[in-house]
Specification:
0% strand, 200 residues, binds iron/sulfur cluster, 12 helices
Length: 200
């Protein structure tokens, strides 16, 4: 009877784990796979990857799998995994680090709308110190439309997307969750300094 051998590319594993640990500030090596994080993750079932699995992929140097899975894009940063983890590992910071690595390496995001959402959110925050809903929606939809055109979805896909968002927009307006005024926070110089430091 043959047995399967687990092959670990030590160099690749070391460099991937080292980079993710440095960017996320999380001690991945402390994970002993108890899966307490998995039991509480609200998106684990939907994504097919739980926090413990993601960490194991990184430690084994499975770069392709670690950077191409739905948990990276659908993690809602609820921090349930981190609060349950006996070793204080916050997977939300790991998924965030992986998103940045994907962007820097010009890889195709698995869920482009999430990448567009992040980008629009940060752009608007950098201008006003908080999200301006109108600006945010404009940037977000322009990015989505560009994606549809690149993918060959055409005008119909863009119109369908806009219709769906308009429905959502109307519902949010009824709840007074969209503001038309432009509010800039007082400490804009601090915000600019934070963005500039993060870029470096
Ligand atoms: S709870 Fe912490 S130690 Fe346990 S599997 Fe999850 S990340 Fe690893
Ligand atoms: S922070 Fe992300 S990975 Fe952790 S439990 Fe919440 S959704 Fe799951």
């Amino acid at each position: 009877m043959s047995s399967q051998t687990l092959t670990i590319e030590t160099e690749a594993a070391g460099s991937l784990a080292g980079e993710v640990a440095a960017r996320s500030g999380q001690n991945l090596n402390a994970c002993y796979q108890c899966r307490r994080c998995a039991a509480g993750c609200p998106v684990g079932d939907d994504t097919g990857v739980t926090p413990d699995r993601l960490i194991r992929m990184i430690l084994l140097g499975e770069k392709e799998e670690a950077m191409n899975n739905l948990l990276v894009w659908k993690c809602v940063a609820c921090y349930t995994c981190g609060t349950r983890c006996p070793n204080n590992i916050h997977t939300a910071r790991i998924t965030e680090a992986l998103k940045h690595m994907i962007k820097e390496q010009h890889l195709e995001p698995m869920v482009p709308k999430v990448a567009n959402f992040h980008s629009a959110f940060l752009t608007s925050t950098s201008h006003f110190g908080r999200v301006n809903e109108m600006e945010f929606m404009g940037i977000y939809e322009m990015k989505n439309a560009k994606n549809e055109l690149t993918k060959g979805g055409g005008v119909k896909a863009i119109v369908d997307e806009l219709k769906a968002q308009m429905g959502l927009g109307k519902a949010m307006m009824k709840l007074k969750r969209i503001h038309f005024s432009i509010d800039r926070i007082k400490g804009m110089s601090e915000i600019k300094r934070l963005f500039s430091t993060a870029k470096k």
